[in-house]
């Protein structure tokens, strides 16, 4: 344990600059260009890596490019307050480093690191990784941004288990400073070190966690969100008042319902349904009638324009 800490401190010291490139990695493929994939592609390109961003169709990719440009415009306004020309150049340089494609092999054949951020479904992830394992160079490191699935279970689809780890980002990726870096019992030390270095090179603070359900943050955050939903379902308080209470009484930046809308109701449902199936005896993991109903209606939160709240203008 102590030697691990020493290695991490050395890595952290040598990557104090957010623009320092990771020597092991030049090109990164991000698969899935939704809420998370677009943010991961953005911060990776901002750190100087060349990025392939992959999704199933051009509509999703164009939406992602628009999201990234809006986010960069927002962040550069403050960063280059007195130098608007620098902001324009910074945005252009970052966007130029991102190549979008619907063909997964375009990036996979060339990338040193693949970050998967597709739907939270084990079969979909297995199908993708088994394909990637065949087309990627055997030096390429594979990672998943899963919220709740065991990394080792996702890695069952590949033969390079020593080059498979977890990189769990937080939404919104450009703003949230944390990156959970997950090592399975088969991830090699060299792979893990490269993942920590990548995290620091994009300016994130890394924490280590075993390959346990929800890692650190979600194991604490998701039960809290569902406890709030149960409180609302019992009729103890309105969801608006629960949000107000947690923001003003506990200092949270968002209330639990705002946060569920922000994460996505479909993703939140996938997380808890998966845990409920895996741990049927644990009362912490119970699905919610209200969330099931909203997902069935297509009210997935901010990304669909409506969840608990309405975001349509
Ligand atoms: C489930 C998964 O597996 C794990 C997860 O991701 S769980 C979810 C984790 N995320 C959270 O808990 C988010 C909680 N919410 C928050 O921290 C804040 O509400 C928030 C950062 C999203 C927005 O902050 P808020 O103060 O309400 O709004 P706003 O003033 O618009 O934004 C604050 C700053 O962030 C910036 N920002 C917000 N969203 C941004 C984005 N998408 N891109 C770039 N910058 C952004 C703003 O420009 C602003 O920057 P400034 O302070 O330099 O001017
Ligand atoms: N939403 C969050 O707050 C959050 C935070 C951390 C981690 N995660 C995890 O990140 C992953 C993505 O979540 P999200 O919120 O970005 O979802 P999302 O629904 O916003 O985006 C998923 C994207 O993946 C694409 N996709 C699906 N299957 C694909 C495939 N086979 N090939 C290429 N693209 C494919 C979809 O078209 C969609 O654009 C999930 O595993 C989720 O659990 C989510």
UniProtKB/TrEMBL annotation:
Pathway, per record: Lipid metabolism; fatty acid beta-oxidation
Chief place where the protein resides: mitochondrion
GO CC field: mitochondrial matrix
An annotated Gene Ontology molecular function: (3S)-3-hydroxyacyl-CoA dehydrogenase (NAD+) activity
Start and end residues of each 3-hydroxyacyl-CoA dehydrogenase NAD binding domain: 28-212
Taxonomic lineage: Eukaryota, Metazoa, Spiralia, Gnathifera, Rotifera
E.C. numbers: 1.1.1.35
Protein name (Swiss-Prot/TrEMBL): Hydroxyacyl-coenzyme A dehydrogenase, mitochondrial
Top-rank taxon, per record: Eukaryota
Family: Belongs to the 3-hydroxyacyl-CoA dehydrogenase family.
Chain residues that bind CoA: 71, 78, 147
Secreted as UniProt keyword: no
Function: Mitochondrial fatty acid beta-oxidation enzyme that catalyzes the third step of the beta-oxidation cycle for medium and short-chain 3-hydroxy fatty acyl-CoAs (C4 to C10). Plays a role in the control of insulin secretion by inhibiting the activation of glutamate dehydrogenase 1 (GLUD1), an enzyme that has an important role in regulating amino acid-induced insulin secretion. Plays a role in the maintenance of normal spermatogenesis through the reduction of fatty acid accumulation in the testes.
Domain 3-hydroxyacyl-CoA dehydrogenase C-terminal: residue ranges: 214-311
The organism of origin for this protein: Brachionus plicatilis (Marine rotifer)
């Amino acid at each position: 344990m102590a030697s691990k800490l020493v290695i991490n401190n050395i890595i952290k010291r040598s990557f104090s600059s957010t623009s320092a490139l990771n020597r092991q990695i030049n090109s990164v493929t991000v698969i899935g260009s939704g809420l998370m994939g677009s943010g991961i592609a953005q911060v990776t390109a901002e750190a100087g890596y060349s990025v392939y961003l992959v999704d199933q169709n051009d509509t999703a990719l164009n939406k992602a490019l628009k999201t990234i440009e809006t986010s960069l415009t927002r962040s550069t306004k403050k960063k280059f307050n007195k130098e608007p020309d620098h902001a324009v150049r910074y945005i252009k340089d970052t966007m130029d480093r991102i190549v979008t494609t619907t063909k997964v092999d375009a990036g996979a054949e060339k990338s040193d690191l693949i970050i998967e951020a597709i739907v939270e479904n084990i079969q979909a992830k297995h199908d993708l990784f088994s394909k990637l394992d065949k087309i990627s160079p055997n030096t390429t490191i594979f990672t998943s941004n899963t919220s709740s699935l065991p990394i080792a279970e996702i890695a069952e689809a590949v033969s390079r288990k020593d080059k498979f780890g977890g990189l769990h980002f937080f939404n919104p990726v450009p703003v949230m400073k944390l990156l959970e870096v997950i090592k399975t019992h088969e991830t090699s030390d060299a792979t893990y070190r490269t993942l920590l270095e990548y995290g620091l090179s994009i300016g994130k603070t890394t924490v280590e966690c075993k390959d346990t359900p929800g890692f650190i943050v979600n194991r604490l955050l998701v039960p809290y969100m569902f406890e709030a939903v149960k409180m609302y379902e019992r009729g103890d308080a309105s969801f608006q008042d629960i949000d107000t209470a947690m923001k003003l009484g506990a200092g949270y930046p968002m209330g639990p319902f705002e946060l569920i809308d922000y994460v996505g109701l479909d993703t939140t449902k996938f997380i808890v349904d998966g845990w409920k199936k895996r741990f049927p005896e644990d009362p912490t993991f119970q699905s919610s009638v209200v969330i099931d109903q909203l997902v069935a209606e297509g009210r997935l939160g901010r990304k669909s324009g409506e969840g608990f709240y309405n975001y349509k203008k």
